[in-house]
Design a protein that fits this description.
Structural class: alpha/beta
CATH class: Alpha Beta
Number of helices: 11
Strand content: 15-25%
Radius of gyration: 19 Å
Order of helices and strands: EEEHEHEEEHEHEHEHEHHEHHH
Largest sheet: 8 strands, parallel, barrel
Number of domains: 1
Shape: globular
Number of strands: 12
Helix content: 40-55%
CATH superfamily: NADP-dependent oxidoreductase domain
C-alpha cells in the first residue's frame, strides 16, 4: 500500500482510505459481522486510515469499529482515525456551535473506544458559522488532547480560507466529492488551493457514475455509453477493471487525491489496490475526460 504524509503533520496515511459509512449495514448481527470482516481485511492489506462521522449509522458505525478496538487495543497506535460532525437532523441543519462540536467529539471517542481522534473534520459548511468561534472550539479540543489535527469536508475555497484565517495551525484536509460525474473541484479552485497550501484532498464517492449513480446524476444515456466505451478500452489496455481505472484517473492528479473506499466486500477492498500499480498516462487521462464531456478540451 502506498502512503503519503499530510503536509504540516506527521500523519502518514495509506493512499486509499477506508470509509466506514456502511460497516454497520442494517445493524443486524449478520451485517455487523460483515462490517468487522471488512475492517479486518482493510487492515490486513495495508489501509491504515479509517473515515467516520457521527451520523454514520446513527453512531453504530463508530460503535462497531470501537468494538474491534476494544478487542484489540494494540491496533490503535498503527491507525489514523478521522471523524466528522456538523450535520444535524430533526430538523435537518448544519451546526458548528461549540457545545455541539465538543459533545460530538466526546461521543465519537466513547463509541470508538479511543482517547483521541487523529483528524476531526467539519462535515458540511454551516452558513452561519463564525470562524473565530470555530477556531476557539478547535483549540479547546486540541488542548484537551481529544483531537490532534483538523480539516474540513465539502468546503469551498473561500469557506476554507475564511476558517484558516482564524486558525494558528493549518487545516490538513478537505474531503469532497470527486468522481467522473462531479469534476467541479478541477476548475472551481478547490484542488488548486489544496496544491498551493499543502492541503490533502480526500475524495468521497470516487466511483460515482461508474459503479453506482453519482449524487444528483445528470448523465444522459449517451454520456454513460461514451464513458463506458472508453473505460472498457482503457481497462483492456491496463489489464484492470473499469472501476480500478477510475481510481487511477483520480490518483493521477497532482493534488495527491486520497480516494475513500467504502465497500464492505473483502475482494473489492483488496482489488482497489490495483489502481495504485497502474502507470496511467497523461494522454489516457484526457481521453477519458473527453469521453465524459462529449467533446475535446478547447
Amino acid at each position: 500500500m502506498q502512503h503519503n504524509t499530510f503536509p504540516s503533520s506527521n500523519i502518514s496515511s495509506s493512499r486509499l482510505i477506508y470509509g466506514c459509512m456502511r460497516i454497520a449495514g442494517d445493524n443486524s448481527s449478520q451485517d455487523r459481522v460483515k462490517g468487522k470482516r471488512a475492517i479486518q481485511t482493510a487492515l490486513e492489506v495495508g489501509y491504515n486510515h479509517f473515515d467516520h462521522a457521527d451520523i454514520y449509522g446513527d453512531g453504530e458505525c463508530e460503535s462497531l469499529f470501537g468494538e474491534l478496538l476494544n478487542e484489540s487495543p494494540s491496533l490503535r497506535d498503527g491507525i489514523i482515525l478521522t471523524s466528522k460532525a456538523g450535520i444535524r437532523r430533526d430538523p435537518q441543519r448544519y451546526d458548528f456551535s461549540s457545545d455541539y462540536l465538543i459533545s460530538s467529539v466526546e461521543n465519537s471517542l466513547k463509541r470508538l473506544h479511543t482517547d483521541y481522534l487523529d483528524l476531526f473534520l467539519l462535515h458540511r459548511p454551516d452558513y452561519l458559522f463564525s470562524a473565530e468561534d470555530v477556531a476557539q472550539t478547535f483549540m479547546q479540543l486540541k488542548q484537551s488532547g481529544k483531537v490532534k489535527h483538523f480539516g474540513v469536508s465539502n468546503f469551498s475555497p473561500s469557506q476554507l480560507s475564511l476558517l484558516q484565517s482564524a486558525l494558528d495551525e493549518p487545516l490538513l484536509v478537505n474531503q469532497i466529492e470527486i468522481n467522473i460525474h462531479n469534476i467541479s473541484s478541477f476548475s472551481d479552485g478547490t484542488l488548486d488551493q489544496c496544491q498551493q497550501f499543502g492541503i490533502t484532498p480526500i475524495a468521497w464517492c470516487p466511483l460515482g457514475g461508474v459503479v453506482y449513480p453519482a449524487w444528483g446524476n445528470t448523465f444522459s444515456a449517451d454520456d454513460e455509453q461514451r464513458i463506458e466505451k472508453e473505460l472498457a478500452l482503457q481497462a483492456k489496455k491496463y489489464d484492470c477493471q473499469p472501476w480500478q481505472l477510475i481510481l487511477a484517473w483520480l490518483l493521477k492528479h497532482p493534488a495527491n487525491i486520497n480516494p475513500i473506499i467504502g465497500s464492505t466486500t473483502p475482494e473489492r477492498i483488496i482489488a482497489a489496490k490495483k489502481a495504485l500499480e497502474l502507470d496511467y498516462s497523461h494522454v489516457d487521462w484526457y481521453r477519458l475526460l473527453e469521453a465524459r464531456n462529449g467533446q475535446a478540451v478547447p
